Amino acid sequence: MRITMIGTGYVGLVSGACFSDFGHDVICVDKDAAKIEKLEAGVMPIYEPGLDALVATNVKAGRLSFTTDLAAGVADADAVFIAVGTPSRRGDGHADLSYVYAASEEIAKAVKGKTVIVTKSTVPVGTGDEVERIMREGAPGKEIYVCSNPEFLREGAAIDDFKRPDRVVVGTEEEAAKEVMRAIYRPLYLNRSPILFTARRTSELIKYAANAFLATKITFINEIADLCEAVGANVQDVSRGIGLDGRIGAKFLHAGPGYGGSCFPKDTLALLKTADDYDTPVRIVEAVVQVNDARKRAMGRKVIKAMGGDVRGKTVGILGLTFKPNTDDMRDAPSLAVIQALQDAGATVKAHDPEGVEQAAKVLKDVEFVADPYAAADGADALVIVTEWDAYRALDLARLKGLLKTPVLVDLRNIYPIDEAEKAGFDYTSVGRGNGLVGELAKAEG
Q1: Residue 20 pLDDT more than 90?
Q2: How far, in Å, are 299, 321, 339, 430, 438 from residue 384 at the CA level?
Q3: Which residues are catalytic?
Q4: 401 with 353: CB under 8 angstroms?
Q5: How large is the C-alpha radius of gyration of the chain?
Q6: pLDDT of res. 443
Q7: Mean pLDDT for the chain overall
Q8: Is the pLDDT of residue 439 over 80?
Q9: Are the C-beta atoms of 320 and 353 separated by less than 8 Å?
Q10: What is the 3-state secondary structure (H, E, C) of the chain?
Q11: For residue range 315-342, what is the model confidence (pLDDT) as tens digits?
């Protein structure tokens, strides 16, 4: 199949590279000439494990190419995927669909024969209807079908998610469009990945509903973590105890400083706006958004409390800046709120991240970025783990303690066992594990 991907952001580039790896001929289009030039030179605009090699392999094989010329890229395509950004709109929080509609107008002028237009971007319910209207007005008489195909990619594991998905959702009731989409995703049949065909509006809502539910699980376990601290329970054991229930599942039940990234914050907000527009408020999601926003700042206060309640003139080392491991994405990262709270209280911050420093430097002020975790600890009054990168899971605790002015370790991701940290001589604070109380109770019972 001949596929054109409009947009070379996270979704567009990963999807285009994976489609080409399936054997399809893929052209990725972007208006940013500098980005296209870098892609042609093998320089990735984002960090995603394995993406650079995947792109290089398929460019060399002649299946993947890049261009700024949308008209040429679209002209002979069997399917055109719209994978442009849909950020939260300033002022009202609705998804900004201007990029989607602008791309649709250009596509309508460029298509020649039978073409399936696929909205890959995360869009509110009804967006496909407007895209279809634009196509009818801009390309009257042409055989064009508009369908929805939401992405379910996790940053840091996107290639595997694309090639071995839990499901592929396609929103269309047109048999001609179904035929093309089946052909595009046929390589997944070997993995028996289910393809769910629905109405277009249903497909659009599935994406938002899925992200809102996952965000709810994260927020739920974070509030349970606070209760665990108050009563002396261990949230990791609670998570395991409820996660073993097949009706609940273990994923997204890890207590921490709150969710961030490119999807959950804007998608939950967009769902709220859509629900309000139709006078069907979703109160649970409203609470999720409010609790998550408040939690990030509360984690800053947690660090301040662990340091004795006063951080003015003190230095705090931060480990992990991105919203999750294996990405350089800083969008709505919990570290932003934690660092801001510390700086507002008078602390000096120095930080390390394996991949996110370049992006972090664009959004953080007055932060010293250092080369490794031990440099972040050197001379600091406390060390805080904010993102659970693998590089932080087996640190030399004795060395860290020796570098710190005071042995304060705040683990917002519960990477280290309480007894291990305390044995190393740390004044250790974790999330939802009783801050050492559980360990003392276990010793007494033993």
Answers
A1: yes
A2: 10, 11, 10, 10, 21
A3: 263
A4: no
A5: 24
A6: 41
A7: 94
A8: no
A9: yes
A10: CEEEEECCCHHHHHHHHHHHHCCCEEEEECCCHHHHHHHHCCCCCCCCCCHHHHHHHHHHCCCEEEECCHHHHHHCCCEEEECCCCCECCCCCCECCHHHHHHHHHHHHHCCCCEEEEECCCCCCCHHHHHHHHHHHHCCCCCEEEEECCCCCCCCCHHHHHHCCCCEEEECCCHHHHHHHHHHHHHHHHHCCCEEEECHHHHHHHHHHHHHHHHHHHHHHHHHHHHHHHHCCCHHHHHHHHHCCCCCCCCCCCCCCCCCCCCHHHHHHHHHHHHHHCCCCCHHHHHHHHHHHHHHHHHHHHHHHHCCCCCCCCEEEEECCCCCCCCCCCCCCHHHHHHHHHHHCCCEEEEECCCCHHHHHHHCCCEEECCCHHHHHCCCCEEEECCCCHHHCCCCHHHHHHHCCCCEEEECCCCCCHHHHHHCCCEEECCCCHHHHHHHHHHHHC
A11: 999 999 999 999 999 999 999 999 999 9
pLDDT digits (tens, 9 = 90+) for 128-151: 999 999 999 999 999 999 999 999
pLDDT band at 193 (very low <50, low <70, confident <90, very high): confident
CA 374 to chain centre: 27
The Cα diameter of the chain in Å comes to 79
Phi/psi of residue 382, nearest 5 degrees: -165, 155
Q: How open is the CA angle 373-235-382, to the nearest 5 degrees?
A: 30
**Contacts with 393 (C-beta within 8 Å, 6 or more apart), sequence order:** 415
Residue 428: what pLDDT?
97
Question: What is the spatial distance between Cα 70 and Cα 67, in angstroms, rounded to a whole number?
Answer: 7
| Alpha-carbon gap, residue 363 to 337, rounded angstroms | 11
pLDDT at 435 over 70: no
Q: Calculate what percentage of the chain has a pLDDT beyond 90.
A: 93
Strand partners, 26: 3, 64
Task: Identify residue 193 by its one-letter amino acid code.
Answer: S
pTM (whole model) above 0.85: yes
pLDDT tens by residue, 408-420: 999 999 999 999 9
Q: For 236-278, give the secondary structure using H, E and C.
A: HHHHHHHHCCCCCCCCCCCCCCCCCCCCHHHHHHHHHHHHHHC
Q: pLDDT band for position 446 (50/70/90)?
A: very low
* Structure confidence at residue 92 as a pLDDT band (50, 70, 90): confident
Mean pLDDT throughout 14-22?
98
CA proximity to 22, closest of 145, 190, 263, 260: 190
